[in-house]
Design a protein that fits this description.
Helix content: 25-40%
Distance between the termini: 54 Å
CATH class of one domain: Mainly Beta
Strand content: 25-35%
Protein name: DUF2291 family protein
Order of helices and strands: HHHEHHEEEEEHHEE
InterPro entries: TM0957-like_sf, UCP033535_lipo
CATH architecture of one domain: Beta Barrel
Organism: Halomonas elongata (strain ATCC 33173 / DSM 2581 / NBRC 15536 / NCIMB 2198 / 1H9)
CATH superfamily of one domain: Nucleic acid-binding proteins
Structural class: alpha+beta
Radius of gyration: 19 Å
Number of strands: 8
Largest sheet: 8 strands, mixed
Number of helices: 7
Shape: globular
Pfam families: DUF2291
């Protein structure tokens, strides 16, 4: 890349995103010399979705997540916007609010009749709760719910969308590593669900961590 080209501000943000996530608490920035070399060489900057998921998103979500029943109660009693400010992440008005929650419950059923597979749990109040297990994970709750990376960290919409898909692929890997579950098994999950203005009677959570309770 010619040094005389005036890089847009967004490209500088992308370059900073080359940080490789060596600690749970934050990013490790490259040096100014390394950054200049990257820009001069014109190398494509890639953010590794697996590293971001394992080193950043999962520990961040574990610290951020609130009990699902608390979040749902806040939405009902305090209003959506107040609940979003307290428990959610909304990077801008262009994105829904994403809530990080943890839940522990017995499996009511496992629905693999469609490619959007679900582990159905019990109800919370009048709302049915399920964990999305794929092989298709719709939406981009995990990407949109992590505030340390946003649209400005990517070169264009396609890269931003691809990163969301790659994070969803990581969710599938987590589900596959967890293995099969049966009705009556008790599972714990940390995950995210996104909504624009509250929800109907169904809450579909994208899990980033799964654990068996009193199981192998």
């Amino acid at each position: 890349m010619n040094k005389s080209i005036n890089l847009p501000r967004a490209c500088l943000f992308i370059a900073l995103a080359i940080v490789m996530f060596s600690t749970l608490s934050g990013f490790k920035l490259v040096s100014n010399d390394e950054l200049a070399s990257i820009l001069d060489d014109g190398d494509a900057i890639s953010i590794n979705a697996e590293e971001v998921m394992q080193d950043n998103i999962i520990p961040w979500a574990a610290s951020k997540a609130a009990p699902l029943d608390v979040v749902l109660s806040a939405i009902d009693s305090e209003g959506f916007q107040s609940a979003c400010e307290q428990y959610g992440v909304q990077q801008s008005q262009a994105f829904p609010c994403t809530f990080w929650v943890h839940v522990s419950d017995a499996v009511a059923s496992v629905d693999t009749s469609s490619r959007v597979g679900k582990i159905n749990l019990g109800n919370v109040g009048d709302k049915s709760i399920s964990l999305l297990i794929g092989p298709v994970i719709p939406g981009s709750s995990v990407r949109d719910g992590y505030p340390e990376l946003g649209y400005a960290d990517f070169a264009n919409q396609d890269q931003f969308a691809t990163f969301g898909d790659e994070l969803n692929d990581q969710v599938i890997s987590i589900v596959e590593s967890f293995g099969n579950v049966d009705s009556g098994d008790t599972v714990e999950a940390i995950g995210a669900f996104s909504t624009w203005d509250g929800m109907g009677n169904t809450v579909q959570i994208v899990p980033v961590a799964l654990n068996r309770v009193n199981g192998e």
